[in-house]
Amino acid sequence: MTREHVWTTMTSDAMYDVAVVGGGPAGLTTALYTTRLGHDTVLINRGGGRAAMMLDTHNVIGVTESVSGNEFLQTAIEQIEGYGADYRRGFVESIEQTDDGFRVETGDAELSSERVVLATGFSDARPDPPLPRTGRGLHYCLHCDAYMFVDEPVYVMGHNESAAHVAMIMLNFTDDVDLLTRGNEPTWSDETDRQLRAHPVDIVDADVTGTETGPDGWLEAFTFEDDTRRAYKGGFPMYGSEYNNELAETLGCELNDDGTVVIDDHGRTSVDGVYAVGDLTPGHNQIPVAMGDGAKAGIALHYDLRTFPKSLAEIEAEGTVDTEEVPAVSDALRQSARQHNTAEADD
């Protein structure tokens, strides 16, 4: 496919094999695979997202904790661009099915793509302030950050089933766990209440009125409306998530009751040609899991889109493959690959 990538007006005629919507670990990994497997790929990223908020990177083998989320993502962006993917900042307003695939529109541009990958993730519901800084006492990922709080005083904030269970789970890491309902009536079940009260978790009903932080910006304590002060290293707010599934819903993708997109083992949705990966789909919300989702979807897209081998039915209908038809990779990607491979050889 010969590409003309013009992003100046809504009437531009940019053509791609794959359009990835979302620039987190799942979307970036999908774009990495589809590009390296020879498919013209564009990734459109509105910015922000869960990974971008990380002050430190945890649980990603080979990546040290000193790497921030933004540094991690910027390295990935440079990687996919180096292989020949197009990366654009923008907000995708709509995706429509066409006879040839999909039309993707942002605020100031339009493109066409044979396949679409939704990697739009979700947003954590934030409790009302006062709150500590995200990553310095306010944490949303227990599996990422619980290790940080071994033998430290910890809070869990919320009044639902999830909050009660996370409070009990944190007893695996520390003996000092408070559950802060912030004046709300608990909504967990009677069974959960009996279970919770059988564990050494202190339930604090008074609302938070202030935070105290150290010189390094880390939370040191909360103050409460009953004039008490409690010291904490950090904790986890448990107020649910809002899945960014508007594009999936508009396209007619089947959704689960919780708002995630229904997919098969390779990211295919119920709509032909539409894939979904990462936190928008069921499963653990972890960077390595998201990257795995992206890798599987990228390979599935390659199987779906690759030109060769031709089937026997195609050969009988179209004849044998001529040498002028190969390689199938576009001229733009061939040039990117030659430049990349030459630079690697020089190093």
Automatic annotation (TrEMBL):
Residues 16-294 form the FAD/NAD(P)-binding domain. Keywords: Flavoprotein, Oxidoreductase. SUPFAM superfamilies: FAD/NAD(P)-binding domain. Residues 336-347 have a biased composition (Polar residues). It holds the Pfam family Pyr_redox_2. GO terms for molecular function: oxidoreductase activity. Residues 319-347 are annotated as: Disordered. Signal peptide: none annotated. This is NAD(P)/FAD-dependent oxidoreductase. It comes from Halocatena pleomorpha.
